[in-house]
Amino acid sequence: MIKVENLVYEYYMGEKEEKFRALDGINLTIAEGEFLAIIGANGSGKSTLAKHLNGLLLPSQGEVWVDGLNTKQEKDIWSIRQEVGMVFQNPDNQIVAAIVEEDVAFGPENLGIPPAEIRKRVSDALKVVGMEKWCNHPPHLLSGGQKQRVAIAGALALGSKYLILDEPTAMLDPVGRREVLKTIKQLNEEKNLTVILITHYMEEAAEADRVVVMNSGKAILEGTPEEIFIQVEKLKSLALDVPPITELAFLLRREGLDLPLDIFRIDEMVRYICPYL
Amino acid sequence: MSISIENLTHFYSQDTPLEVTALEDITLEIQPGEFIGIIGQSGSGKSTLVQHFNGLLKPSQGKVYLEGQDITLKGVNLRLIRQRVGMIFQYPEQQLFEETIFADVAFGPRNIGLAEEDVKARVEQALELVGLNSQEIAQRSPFQLSGGQKRRVAMAGVLAMQPDYLILDEPTANLDPQGRDEILFLLDKLNQEEKVTIILVSHSMEEVARVAQRIFVIHQGKVITSGSLGQVFSQEEELETIGLALPQVTKLMNNLAKIGKKVKTDIFTPQQAAQEIISCIRGKKDV
C-alpha cells in the first residue's frame, strides 16, 4: 500500500525566489492491485505527485509511505525505488543500452543479482509485455509503443510491485497508445501489478478502477470513472475533457433524453439511443 | 495559385543498401485559403511530405510548384519561399533560444532586414494573435513560461514572418485539452480571419475533424485517400486497417446506420451528433 499524508511540496522560482506551492495538502491511499488514474491540466501537480511516490522528490511537509517505509528515510530509498517502478513520457529518454535485453537487464544488474536470475527476469519481463521477439534488437529501431513496453519490462525485471506511468502515451500514435494501454491493463489484471497512470487522455482514465483529478496542487475529485465523468461541466471548468461519448450523453440529456451520464462506450450508447430512434 | 505537387517520390539514403522509399508518386494540390489535414501513422511519410512544401527537402523525382513557380529548380530563392510557406515543427518550443520573448519572436523579422519599428509591430501583432499579452510578457524569458505558452511563443515567431501558408507538424502533441483547444482555435482564426492557408499534420482524426475542410490520408508513403471529412470518414474499414481510428461519434453514427437507423453519418463532433439525433427523434414524432 502507498499512503500519502498531508503532502505539501514547495519550491522557489524566478529571480525573486518566490515560493511556489506545487502540491497543497494531498491525502491519498493506493491499495495493492489497484489501477489508479490521475488526471489534471498541465501544471496541476500530477507529475510532482508521482515523483513523490518513489522518493524522486521529498515532501516539504507531510509523509509518503510505501509498504510501511517512509520515503524520507535515506536507508530505505533504494528498496522503495525497487518496489515502485516509473515509466516516463519520452521513450527515448529512458533507454540506456544498445540492445533491448541489455536495457531491461540494466536495473537488475545494478542490484547485483546473479546472472542466471537476471536472464530469467529479463526474458519473463519481455514475454509479459509481448516484446520477447525483439530481445536482440537495437531499441532505436523500435516504434514508440514498443519502446514504452521495453521501459515497462525494465521496471518488471526490477521486481516492482507498483508501476507509475507519467503520460506514457503522450508521444505515441493511436496504435502505440493502444499497445501500451493493453499491456498496462493486462499486467494489472493478470499479474496483480498496482498501476498509477497519469494521463491527458480521458478514454485511458476510463479504463481505471479509480480516478483522481488534480487542480492547482490539490486532489479535488476522486471516484470511479463513472462517478468522475458524469461531472461534465465541472471537468470542463478544470480545462479537462470528458470522453466524446459521455459528452454526447450530456448534450442529449440537456435536450431532455433520459440517458444515464456514465456512458463512455459506443455500444452502450447505441443500446440507450435505439429505443428513441 | 497554390501549392502543387506532381508525381513526387522521395528516397532516403538513395543509391545505398539502406535506400528507403519514403514517398511514392504523390500528386496533390492545395488551394489558397484551404484548411488541409494530413493524417497518417508515425512513419507514414507525413512529415517528409510537408517538408517538400517549402523546399526543406528536395524530391528524388517529381516537381513542387508554389504559385506556378517550380521550387525544385537550381537558383530558386528558397529564403523567399520559406517566408511565404511557414513551418512549425514538432515541439517548436525546443527551438526557443533568446533571452527575452520579444527577441525570440523578432529574430525572423530582423533577419530579413525590417526596420526596428516594423519588427516591433510584427512582434506585437504575432503575440496578440497567439493570445499572449505582449506588454506583459515581451521582456520576460521564454523559459519561464508553461509548456503551452512556450509553444505559442514559438508559433508567434513563425507568424511574425506573415506567411501565406502555414504548415504545422503535430502542433498539439503533449498539450493538455485546454492547450490543444487554444491551438486549434488559433488555427481556425488564422484561416478564417487572416486568410492563411493551413496545413495541419496530425495522427488524431478527432482533432483534424474539428478544424480541417479537406483531408489527405498518407500510408506507407502514398496518399491512399483524400477528400472532404465526410468522403474520407465514410471509409471506416480501410482507415481502421491502417490503424487510424475514426472519431468516436462518427463510429457511433455509423453503427446506428448499420442497424438500420436513418441517421446521417457525416458527423464528427459530439455537438453535431447531438443535433442530428435530436432532429431524428423530433422528425419521427412529427410523422
Task: Provide a descriptive summary of the structure in words.
- The complex is a heterodimer of chains A (277) and B (287).
- Chain A is α/β, with parallel strands linked by helices.
- Chain A has one domain (2-225): P-loop containing nucleotide triphosphate hydrolases (Rossmann fold).
- In chain A, 38% of the residues lie in helices and 23% in strands.
- Chain A has a six-stranded mixed beta sheet, with helices on both faces. In chain A, strands 2-1-4-5 form a four-stranded antiparallel beta sheet, covered by helices on one side.
- In chain A, a hairpin with a 4-residue loop joins strand 1 and strand 2.
- In chain A, helix 3 (100-110) packs across helix 4 and helix 4 crosses helix 5.
- The longest helix of chain A has 17 residues, at 174-190.
- Chain B has one domain (3-246): 3-Layer(aba) Sandwich (Rossmann fold).
- In chain B, the strands form two sheets. A six-stranded mixed beta sheet of chain B has the order 6-7-8-3-9-10. A four-stranded antiparallel beta sheet of chain B has the order 2-1-4-5, with no helix packed on it.
- In chain B, strand 1 and strand 2 (20-30) form a beta hairpin.
- Chain B is globular, with a radius of gyration of 21 Å.
